[in-house]
Amino acid sequence: MVIEDIETGPELIKRLIAQEVREYHRIHTRPSETRSSTHADLVALRTLEDFKAALIEPVETEALFSGGQVMTCWSVTRSNGAYRVIYLPQAALFSLAVESMFGPVDIGVHGPAIAVFSSVG
């Protein structure tokens, strides 16, 4: 594979999120033989709906990190006034960023997009 062939940017991010949404939905709507749907599944599905409603077309964003480092990332959810989810292409993961007068600031909550999104109420 040639370096130029590696997919980056909005299309990759949308594909990663779509895959995560499908898997998250499957887990919380298909009870196994050992359990039935639970209240937690209902909460998870509501979280999924809230996440999907907050999604935006990925937008390139400069985010601040500890030590004053600035990195180019991608905003993937609209801000709720305090937080937004961003994608860190350098680490290939999602992060929670707090809004500040200097722009989004990474606060060290990293992982799958829905888990990051649901870490704040």
User: How many E strands?
Assistant: 5
Radius of gyration: 16 Å
- Please state the overall shape, judged from the principal axes of the Cα atoms: globular
Q: With helices defined by DSSP (H or I, 4 residues minimum), what is the helix count?
A: 3
Please write out the topology.
Blueprint: H1 10-29, H2 39-54, E1 55-64, E2 70-77, E3 83-88, E4 93-98, E5 105-111, H3 113-117
Antiparallel strand pairs: 1-2, 2-3, 3-4, 4-5
Helix pairs in contact: 1-2
Task: Describe the protein in words.
The chain has 121 residues and is α+β, with helices and mostly antiparallel strands. The protein has one domain (3-117). 34% of the residues lie in helices and 31% in strands. β1 and β2 (70-77) form a beta hairpin. α1 runs antiparallel to α2 (39-54).
In short:
Helix content is 34%, strand content 31%. By secondary structure, the chain is α+β, with helices and mostly antiparallel strands. The termini are far apart.
Structure keywords:
121 residues, alpha+beta, 34% helix
